[in-house]
Amino acid sequence: MNAAATTTHTNCLRCGRALRTAKSQALGYGAKCAAKVRHSAVDLTDYKPHQIASARELIEDGAIIPLRSVIFIAVSTDGTETYKTAPTGCTCPAGLKGSRCYHQLAARLLLAA
């Protein structure tokens, strides 16, 4: 993800609390929520290592935003498109073909936190 394209957040994307530090505002998550997301227990056996890395990068860049309880808006790798994603499906090209994509994994990681 392009670091220059990221936005600052005033509230945590996970719990909604106010973010006070510049690091938390850039990340979009408070320290405790970020730790919970990093250590969330999700079965990663169906995903390739580059998908796992991309999902974690998507979360770290704050490029996946909760829309409803299990639906998220995810930004594409190049930052030009957005996709609606959930743990079971995604509107990205891979998701429309029925493949598992890193957007779905990022949604699973956030929901497991």
From TrEMBL:
InterPro entries: DUF6011, Znf_SWIM
GO molecular function: zinc ion binding
Pfam families: DUF6011
UniProtKB keywords: Metal-binding, Zinc, Zinc-finger
Domain SWIM-type: 71-112
UniProt-recorded name of the protein: SWIM-type domain-containing protein
Organism: Streptomyces aurantiogriseus
